[in-house]
Amino acid sequence: MISKVVPSTSHPPYIHDWRTSARAVWICTFSLLPIVIWSSIIYGHTAVAVWSVALGTSLIAEAIASGLLRRWTLGDGSAVLTGLLVAATMPPGVPLYIPAVSAAFAILVVKTAFGGLGTNWMNPALGGVAFAYANWPVAMREYVLPSLVSGVDGVSASTPLSFAKGLTGGLDARVMDALRGSAYPLSGIDSTITGFLNDYVFSRLGARLPDGYIDLAIGLKPGTLGESALLAVLAGSVVLMGLRLIKPLIPVAMLTVFAVLARLFGTGLPGESFLGGDALFALSSGGVMFAAFYMASDPVSSPLGRVNSLVYGAAIGALCFIFRRWGTYSEGVVYAILVMNVMTPFIEKGTLSLTRARGRLPSA
Amino acid sequence: MRSGSLQRTANVAVTGSYDRMDQVGRMIRTRGFKHGGVPVPHRVPFKTGPIENAFLPKNAVVMLKDTRDAVEPLPVVYVGQEVRESQLLAKSAGRGSSNVHSPIPGIVRRIDSTMTPGGFESRAILVSLEGSFSVLGKRPERYLWKSLNKADISHIVQEKGIVRISTGEPLAEIIAERASRPGFVLVISALEMDPYRRTEEELLAIRPEDIVDGCAIAARMALPSRILLAVDEHISAGTVEQLQKVIAASELDIVVQPFKRRFPQDMTRQIAEALDIADAGTLFVLEPSTLIALHEAVVANKPHVEQYVYVGGGAIKHPAILKARIGAPIGDLIEECGGFSGHPDTIVIGGPLRGRAAADLDVSVTRTTRAVLALTVEETKSAPERSCVRCGDCITVCPEGLDPHAIFKLLRAGRTADAVASGLALCSLCGSCAYACRSRIPLVQKFDAARRNEELR
């Protein structure tokens, strides 16, 4: 041998894109930080406890899973992300064993049992949350008013969405008017900002913003931890889509279909007319935005391809609306995504024949 | 190309700064292939200047085969024999093989089997430097080739062992093949779709006369229906202007066509797609460096013993293009460029996306070595292989419109026939999917191996 090259151990290409699966997960995790911080501010120590218990348990569970699989997987960041996502769907005052057990179930059963990151057929965090809803249906639906609104910790209240669904009296056509009519709590921050906006911006356009939307946007209402910072969720979504880390078609299709259906069929108020639904209220309540950008677009459990993504996103939007409008529980988005997670292989199979027919591929 | 003033103004409005004028003032639209591909906007800065001759190597290892499937040329020298510079070392012995000449004067030390940088077995001849220059040190002779006929030129090209630098196929053989099927487009491709290499573009700037003259020789041999010079959209305006002047002074009608900077624009099928030509088989692609070798063989009677090599990458102190002798170890070239400035992670021969890694610095320059790159970890961005997270990036970037993720899964499940049905045979092994893969799965390697197994069966 005069000279040699390595024929098999290394292979082209020798340069790569900056995105790696681990880096994508870490960026996703860091984009959740504003939500963690803001919810900790408005709910105080109860929120901090839920976040840290879920995170800690999922790290321990992942370490155990690493041992079982004989493969060190803590570095890929998915355990941290799953832990945070499980916590994000919990109400702040929840007993701490619930996030702990849910996170452990998410990591050990939903993810590791099927082979770890990349082979789980269901989003681990959503699997864990569904487990929690099934086991502790009452505790998972006990929401508290942020201490920033009430001034004291642990004042229980129902979420705007379930409150609005439960309204029977009155013939208000708009959700916000109905909530105000029933003396649903409103923060001082909201009335100040809404008043300012109405005086200086909307009055010139001949419009009026009802009280309450600002509370929804900054989380000053009862709800899950992930719902508490809608603006941070939107900022995070811009980061994730700008860096092309998530498939943008899924959340876009999902939110579009959901908003259109909400506009058509409304929230379920007695005085509501067809085509008069409040799409803005529907989008900013019940954690739809958070689920759209952080859960529905999870690459592992969603289908590949443009058409598939559109079908998948649209189906989640439609299912989510059906579950929320006519179902009993307001957290319909969790089940909508889980159902479509299971349907993913079916969607991919269905469109495969379609792409074969159009493309250059020989039909098989 | 559009004519008519109305359409011309419309064109300017639509494509804006991407438009260029050819020598008669027609608008030329920047072209690109339609789907997939990896954008490579970033180019490593490079100080242009005259191209230096590399030092003569003490030992030259000359590979006999330049392609995997070629018939190996037969050595016509024996161990211990004294050879002159440019003396014939091995004679073409059939399809795909070409004459091999000694790059340096010296003594034949060994004739031995070895692994080429391309990753296949070939015999190689080791020549140790001794004695004096005879041909290349002198001023080049200049023959007037215009009086030669097709057969004469073809004979010279074959005699001098000129190969197509991008593929290693003997030029005389592929031109003869083309000439038998008229009505093709000759594409002079100066496209180098990676952040590093820029030899072809530099040659266009430094030796435009020789390239156009070489193009005229190739055209005399093969009679193309039209000639296109494919350049990068970001080529300097000065270079294009100079080229236009040289082309105008020649008898040829060469259209300078800018292409979008998107990998793998330099592959034949992608060039055809960008030009809206349905059959990629009607394109005949040659590089400016091949035309220079052709020109030097016909005009200066010089065999293919030198090669323009771009030496660069983040770990090289002073990246440069060197005119190196075939058989020189790449370590010599790196040393001549100031050596390493950082810690090289991988040394790549050929190009960062489709090249091959060199095991050590003794790997020798061949007639298909276009670049030697020493890449740092920051450049390779290598990461541990993980399982597929189904991000779909490989589908987005595949220029052939395939689903690399599905093909990979089918191969892993052992369903090779289904993988072929999903388009494995259409894969050009360009490497876009493996470049984009977030889990760093060696997709190209898997596809290449599967295809080879399939062919063997």
Describe this structure in words.
The complex is a heterodimer of chains A (364) and B (457). Chain A has helices at residues 21-30, 33-43, 45-69, 78-88, 97-111, 124-135, 147-150, 160-166, 175-181, 188-202, 213-218, 230-242, 249-265, 279-283, 288-296, 306-326, 332-358, and strands at 143-145, 155-157. Chain A has 364 residues and is mainly alpha-helical. The N and C termini of chain A lie far apart (46 Å). Chain B is an alpha/beta fold and 457 residues long. Helix content of chain B is 30%, strand content 20%. A 6-stranded mixed beta sheet of chain B has the order 4-18-17-21-19-20. A 4-stranded antiparallel beta sheet of chain B has the order 5-11-10-7, with no helix packed on it. At the A-B interface, α1 of A face β10, β19, β20 and α14 of B.
